[in-house]
Design a protein that fits this description.
The structure is a single chain. By secondary structure, the protein is α/β, with parallel strands linked by helices. Helices cover about 40% and strands about 15% of the residues. The chain has helices at about 20-30, 50-55, 70-80, 100-110, 130-150, 165-170, 195-205, 225-260, 285-305; strands at about 10-15, 40-45, 60-65, 85-90, 115-120, 125, 160-165, 210, 215. Helix 5 packs parallel to helix 8 (about 225-260), helix 7 packs parallel to helix 8 and helix 8 packs across helix 9. It starts with 8 loop residues before the first strand and ends with a helix.
Length: about 300
Amino acid sequence: MQRSGNPRVSVVVPTRNEARNLEVVLPAIAAVRPAVHEIIVVDGNSVDGTIETAQRVLPWVKVITQTRKGKGNAMACGFGAATGDVIVMFDADGSADPAEIPAFVRALVAGADFAKGSRFVRGGGSDDITLLRKSGNAGLNGVANALFGTSYTDLCYGYNAFWADVLPELELPAVDLPAPANGEMLWGDGFEIETVLNCRVAAAGMKITEVPSMERERIFGQTNLRTFADGTRVLRTLAAERRRAVRRRAERVQVEVESRALTPPGGIPAVAPAQPEPVVKRAARPAAATRREGTHIRLALEEEAS
């Protein structure tokens, strides 16, 4: 697929009671040069006039309301409404620097499918992260890198960008699905959204480039992040995404084996008999590989099972 060297950029901003912050954040995004194509504010039933503030501060902003609850659902709603070639994930609390958007876009134009912001590479940093969150993030990085063969330095950072054409491969929960009756969130609807995206782009074999990013302190209000609860959710998501990746890989292998079985030496596909259906057994994994994988994911799977 041919991608533009001068892509239109859609910035998706999830919000929940961020009216005061939007008065600062939206004009700053709008001032970025080259100019962004659109800014999409996705509101999560705010009660502080977030929607009205967004429309007053930036009349051309696109405002939508998320369909369920959680940051992940808000992001998915924004992704679905985006019309640009590149989508940038941008927090509304003022912690992200809009001036970094061109760096993310350059990484994508240079060949990346996914540009991953990092506070822990040269040129990055944070004025906001606590020692506890930093330690937890480092531990989750290690688990993710072991499970997916990646070299992430900042798994849980939410400032990322990607080409819009990769959205189908991400397979996020459909925005029109009903919310669970028990009040819980669907997997992918919560703060684990960054983890889901990072796992799925890695499992799909996409090219990932980390971009240095400086995180500033939230301007107004209190964070919605719950350190222990959301950290546990991320760990469970890593386990679930690993199982998903293994299952998808096995399905692809089976399809390839079936395709080869129906193609004779001459190269002309044979007509598959109606009955009986060809039976293709999945190849058993070598015991050594199984032991290595088990070492990496045992703890995560036990957490998921509990």
